[in-house]
Design a protein that fits this description.
heterodimer; A: 417 residues; mainly alpha; MetI-like fold; three-stranded antiparallel β-sheet; two-stranded antiparallel ribbon; 12 helices; 9 strands; globular; B: 429 residues; 3 domains; 17 helices
């Protein structure tokens, strides 16, 4: 009847730090920590000695000195008398503008190509396969340079649009001009503008603020209308007709506001040797935009295809068996499930697009890397500080995007046991 | 009842009728695959128009190709105003596009290294290759380094000796337990490399000078550079990625934090900033006076970059593995590394093959970014050729050539991964 009660209580010996799995992990971690600190100390020591040898210090004061260089594309007021910080902000805005434009275009192209590749149509399916395989397997840098070469060497010069026997013509009722100096598109103007409000060194156009405000309120009211319709439906079983209310709420205030502000478009016109008026999208922006979009769209198309194919056929059949129509089957059954598969890789494509905007260097697009990480570093000789700041900014943007992805993933995650 | 005489009842079987003409053969195929409904028909017509447009634009241009010309003006004289591709630029400069400014009398060395690469890859890629070749695979990095960079043969040999010393240490200390022997097998060779390897190489070289002409890195260029960086990065990023993935899944909080911070940092910044770090900043972090090869620095950065992505791919494979596999390995009494090597990794890596190969393809395409730090990769050479007065204004031919070569490599890799997936498929679903 004498049963040993468990293992003998061994007293602690030094050897257990190595041989006993209960303690070994502490040994390994302490060893790793020491190694890490040693390496870090070595790197910092080297850096300090190197900086001292070059007679440099480590300071970010250069950020407040005058930049002294121009930036061709300026979303906010900027000239060469502003500071390096301001130049960096302009660069960051340019990066974000390009990233958002490319994400939107790549998503549209990618969804179309992905769906078409799955279609029963033989020619279209093959064409899309060729598109996807061609663009996926060639470096994006080549596509950017090719688009840039086409834009600058094959497009007509502005003076080709001149005169009776013009060799080039504007597109879409004389509103868009594609030239070798860039693409000119109409710009929005307000006759009865409310002016702008100075916020420090930034100026905020009150017109756009008001428009955004009205759109926001409209969407909020529309959501309330839909929600109350759903409540009535749940209480009585009959859903009130709301489409005309939604239409009215969404568009009437906006149209009224635009009429009140005297909104109209200013079209680009040929004056002298170049186009004037409208918005000029420079070749650098266009090349980056098109190059990044068509390249990333090939990847997005594959994600979309994989997402749709991941939904088993039984889901469609079950939806049909319930009596749902094809449109509703797509909207209520297939899409919510396919999106769960599609969205995470889609967002990592957005992340890739954002990081790939740094290739703007190849065509002279003035993004964050070209301002803060390029000219500023070259002018001030502050490589260490500049690159550190550059990496931190990119890291912040990336972390924001990936935390959005995690938020979404947690929301749509299948609730299991 | 049955004997009523009904003259209209058939007494023999009717011959089966041929199906309607729209339901057989080519017509049926066309109807079902090309004109199945309004939308499909519209799409077909649009697609055919697009193809016709491409053929109309590209056809004459390709048909009138000029292969023998030494400048764009000569090409245009031959073409006399007709549209036509001027492949003369490839003919004229292909050696440069492949090798950069590598001495032309020594082209055989990188070519031999490439041929040997395939020999070295054989035992890794194809199970039917003779097993003994694996020793050549292990020796290949040193052989290739010596062939491409040249110089004394004793330098790569003395470096390789370090690995031998490490392995010997591992065997000699294996009685002391896994932890001690692993640490010893890392520390001893590092000490050897830092303190003795230079002397060993120098001593052997003075005793028996065996050397071929050394070629400095700045003369490298073209696809040679892409392949050197790509292949080295691929070979090094896989083991590093596995270690990082294991670190990220480790139970030890410190190891996990180190792995997570490293992976998220690398994945959060563009490769181009890392390359600039390699070219601008690395000298700050190293002892004063060190100055090592730019290509080597780029390889280090590209490897670190790819290994972070690789780690995430492999982590996905590890997460997809059922917990029972880990527990079964523990139950068998395997230690950590044995369990990883024999049970976990073979399955996890198999699951992550598509992701791993995608990372490889991405890495190979990303080698084009080295043009930004002044290395003459194919794109850099294309710009250089276009800046030359002979070939000013040419771009399609160059980019089609460069793009086609990248395409062949990347497409080949993706096809091989599909083949590998099929070969390793062991489930019978």
């Amino acid at each position: 009847m004498a049963i040993d009660s468990g293992a003998p209580k061994a007293s602690f010996r030094l050897g257990m730090l190595i041989y006993d799995t209960r303690y070994r992990s502490y040994t390994i971690q302490i060893f790793a920590l020491l190694l890490l600190m040693l390496v870090a100390a070595w790197l910092v020591d080297n850096t300090i000695r190197n900086l001292a040898a070059l007679g440099k210090d480590f300071s970010f004061n250069f950020l407040w000195s005058t930049a002294g260089y121009d930036i061709s594309q300026r979303p906010i007021a900027y000239d060469s008398t502003y500071t390096h910080t301001r130049a960096a902000v302009v660069g960051l805005l340019n990066t974000l503008i390009l990233a958002i434009m490319s994400c939107v275009a790549a998503t549209i192209l990618g969804v179309i190509a992905g769906v078409l590749r799955l279609s029963n149509n033989w020619v279209v399916g093959r064409l899309m396969t060729v598109y996807i395989e061609t663009f996926r397997n060639v470096p994006v840098l080549i596509w950017i340079i090719v688009v840039s070469a086409i834009m600058s060497e094959s497009m007509p010069a502005p003076n080709a649009f001149r005169g009776e026997d013009a060799t080039a013509s504007m597109l879409l009722f004389d509103s868009i001009a594609i030239t070798n100096r860039g693409v000119y598109v109409p710009s929005p103007l307000f006759d009865n503008s409310l002016g702008s409000y100075a916020l420090g060194t930034l100026t905020l156009s009150l017109d756009y603020v008001l428009i955004l405000l009205v759109i926001g309120v409209s969407i909020w009211v529309n959501q309330r209308i839909t929600a109350s319709a759903t409540r009535i439906q749940e209480a009585t079983g009959v859903r009130p007709v709301t489409w005309w209310k939604s239409l009215l709420v969404l568009f009437a205030p906006l149209i009224a506001l635009l009429m009140f502000l005297g909104f109209h478009l200013e079209y680009p016109e040929l004056r002298g040797f170049n186009f004037a008026g409208g918005i000029q999208m420079r070749n650098s922006l266009i090349s980056m935009w098109i190059g990044l979009s068509i390249y990333s769209a090939a990847f997005i198309a594959e994600n979309v295809r994989a997402g749709i194919m991941a939904i088993s056929k039984g889901q469609t059949e079950a939806a049909f068996a319930l009596g749902l129509q094809p449109g509703k089957t797509m909207r209520l059954v297939i899409l919510p499930q396919a999106l769960r598969v599609i969205i995470p890789p889609l967002i990592s494509q957005y992340l890739n697009i954002t990081k790939n905007t740094s290739l703007g260097l190849a065509v002279g697009y003035m993004d964050l890397r070209s301002t803060l990480g390029g000219i500023t570093i070259n002018q001030t000789g502050r490589e260490l500080e500049g690159m550190l700041l550059l990496m931190l900014v990119y890291l912040t943007v990336s972390l924001i995007i990936s935390s959005l992805m995690n938020l979404y993933n947690n929301r749509v995650k299948l609730k299991e046991r | 009842m049955g004997d009523r005489n009904a003259s209209y009842v058939r007494t023999e079987m009717m011959e089966p009728q041929a199906p309607p003409i729209t339901e057989v053969g080519a017509i049926r195929w066309v109807r079902e695959n090309l004109f199945d409904g309004v939308l499909s028909s519209v799409l077909t017509v649009l697609a055919l128009l697009a193809i016709a447009f491409l053929l109309h634009e590209l056809g004459p241009w390709l048909l009138n190709s000029v292969w023998n010309a030494h400048s764009l003006t000569q090409c245009r004289e031959i073409l006399q105003g007709e549209p036509g591709a001027c492949w003369g630029v490839i003919n004229d400069r292909w050696a440069q596009l492949l090798f950069g400014f590598y001495p032309s009398t020594l082209y055989w060395r990188p070519v031999l290294a490439l041929v040997l690469l395939f020999v070295a890859l054989a035992p890794v890629l194809f199970p039917s290759a003779p097993r003994g070749l694996i020793w050549f695979t292990l020796a290949y990095p040193f052989v290739a380094f010596w062939l491409i960079w040249g110089g004394s043969i004793w330098l790569p040999i003395s470096v390789a000796l370090g690995f031998g010393i490490g392995y010997a240490t591992l065997l000699a200390t294996s009685r002391l337990g896994l932890l001690i022997s692993t640490i010893a097998a890392v520390v001893v060779p590092v000490l050897y490399w830092l303190l003795f390897s230079g002397d060993v190489a120098g001593g052997l070289a003075s005793a028996l000078p065996l050397e071929i002409r050394a070629v400095p890195s700045r003369e490298f260029g073209g696809f040679m550079i892409s392949i050197i960086i790509g292949v080295t990065g691929i070979a090094l990023s896989l083991p590093l990625g596995i270690l990082l993935a294991l670190g990220r899944r480790s139970n030890m909080p410190l190891i996990k934090v180190i792995a997570v911070v490293f992976i998220e940092f690398i994945r959060g910044v563009p490769l181009i900033t890392l390359l600039f770090t390699a070219s601008l900043l690395l000298n700050y972090f190293l002892p004063p006076g060190t100055n090592f090869d730019l290509i080597l620095r780029v390889i280090i950065m590209v490897t670190l970059f790819a290994s972070a992505y690789m780690a995430e791919v492999i982590r996905g494979g590890l997460a997809a593995l059922p917990r029972g596999q880990f527990e079964a390995a523990d139950a068998l009494g395997l230690d950590y590394w044995k369990a990883q090597r024999l049970i976990v990794m073979p399955q996890a890596l198999k699951i992550s093959i598509p992701g791993i190969v995608n990372t490889f393809i991405g890495l190979f395409k990303d080698t084009t970014l080295v043009v930004f730090i002044g290395l003459l990769d194919p794109i850099g050479l294309a710009s250089a050729i276009r800046a030359n007065s002979d070939w000013q204004g040419i771009y399609w031919e160059l980019f089609i050539f460069i793009g086609a070569i990248f395409w062949i490599f990347c497409f080949g890799m993706s096809r091989y991964s599909m083949h590998l997936e099929r070969r390793l498929k062991t489930d019978h679903r």
